[in-house]
């Protein structure tokens, strides 16, 4: 009994009280603002047209879910992976290959309920294998290995015609029709995306407080101590990649249903880095952060592009605005928009109610 008790203490001791509070996740179900946001998301089809519903909010949820898989690895495991979009793209390609599309010589024509589980399984295996390679390194080398996997997959899909149809990609991928509903029509598809995003969010929040999540955070903070306690450090890290890969794969399935096609451009190196920017801008210590970062990214990508074109500039320069915003947020907050919000809330509290009398943490 004493060994078990001591082990639990050691698992939690590396994290500060602030980190443990952050691990509880956001939104707080006792917070009225959380319920307001939930209600707005549920009634969104009543207040938004098809463009905003799909191109803004559904796209935000899909990109946010991919970034959530990165947040899970970086925030709880201390591992920065640049191949999460690659895993999502792999799942999307597998849906197109095993399902039905215009490319009858490539697609096998399986029903969606068989193609999707197969794609998710293969994407999870693919991501887990990549994670098994990455966990053998640390720091910048982990980032470079995952980036190399993403770049290799991009060039492979671009040059392979037998399976991935080269740079043309696979078009007109079939989407689910059952119970008399076309689940790719705007409103049903939005609710499917919302449900998957909510399941992934609460799943990550639950795992972060479960024994595996606490052990993973212990591995992040002090791997030598965790190894001395008898934990298999690499096994926990590889398992984290498996969880993150499954989450990214779910988002990849939604993406290929949304666009009804998949091509190498969807898994380019630049797009992989965008996911990292989304996660950091929103904040990588809380599951809600990636969704906030995705909303900021999608709004800038959608409306800044039109604004730049109207004033006679190249629309692709919207990435300059994203880069400037990224630098500003990182300069003022190491935890993205969430960190800025928390700092503002602390500044609004009376000085006597602040930790250490408002002097900050030592």
From TrEMBL:
The organism of origin for this protein: Bradyrhizobium manausense
PANTHER family: ABC TRANSPORTER ATP-BINDING PROTEIN, HIGH-AFFINITY BRANCHED-CHAIN AMINO ACID TRANSPORT SYSTEM PERMEASE
GO molecular function: ATP binding; branched-chain amino acid transmembrane transporter activity
Keywords: ATP-binding, Cell membrane, Membrane, Nucleotide-binding, Transmembrane, Transmembrane helix
Compartment annotation: Cell membrane
Cellular component aspect of the GO annotation: plasma membrane
Membrane topology reported for the UniProt record: Multi-pass membrane protein
Name recorded for this polypeptide: ABC transporter ATP-binding protein
Main location: membrane
Source organism superkingdom: Bacteria
């Amino acid at each position: 009994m004493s060994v078990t008790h001591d082990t639990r203490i050691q698992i939690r001791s590396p994290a500060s009280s602030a980190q443990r509070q952050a691990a509880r996740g956001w939104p707080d179900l006792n917070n009225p603002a959380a319920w307001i946001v939930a209600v707005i998301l549920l009634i969104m089809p009543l207040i938004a047209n098809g463009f905003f519903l799909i191109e803004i909010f559904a796209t935000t949820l899909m990109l946010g879910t991919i970034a959530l898989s990165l947040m899970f690895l970086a925030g709880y495991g201390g591992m920065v992976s640049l191949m999460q979009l690659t895993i999502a793209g792999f799942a999307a390609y597998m849906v197109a290959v095993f399902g039905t599309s215009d490319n009858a010589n490539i697609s096998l024509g399986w029903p969606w309920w068989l193609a999707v589980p197969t794609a998710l399984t293969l994407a999870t295996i693919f991501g887990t294998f990549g994670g098994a390679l990455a966990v053998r390194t640390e720091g910048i080398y982990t980032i470079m290995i995952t980036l190399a996997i993403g770049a290799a997959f991009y060039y492979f899909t671009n040059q392979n015609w037998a399976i991935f149809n080269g740079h043309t990609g696979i078009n007109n991928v079939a989407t689910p029709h059952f119970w008399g509903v076309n689940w790719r029509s705007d409103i049903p598809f939005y609710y499917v995306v919302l449900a998957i995003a909510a399941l992934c969010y609460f799943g990550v929040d639950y795992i972060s407080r479960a024994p595996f999540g606490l052990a993973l955070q212990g591995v992040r903070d002090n791997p030598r101590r965790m190894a001395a306690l008898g934990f298999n450090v690499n096994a926990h890290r590889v398992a984290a990649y498996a969880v993150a890969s499954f989450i990214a794969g779910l988002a990849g399935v939604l993406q290929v249903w949304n666009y009804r096609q998949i091509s190498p451009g969807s898994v380019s190196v630049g797009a992989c880095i965008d996911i990292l920017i989304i996660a950091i801008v929103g904040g990588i210590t809380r599951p809600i952060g990636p969704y906030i970062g995705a909303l900021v990214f999608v709004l800038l990508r959608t409306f800044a592009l039109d604004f730049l074109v109207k004033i006679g500039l190249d629309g692709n320069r919207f990435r300059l605005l994203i880069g400037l915003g990224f630098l500003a947020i990182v300069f003022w907050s190491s935890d993205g928009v969430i960190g800025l919000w928390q700092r503002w809330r602390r500044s609004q509290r009376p000085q006597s109610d602040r930790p250490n009398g408002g002097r900050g943490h030592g």
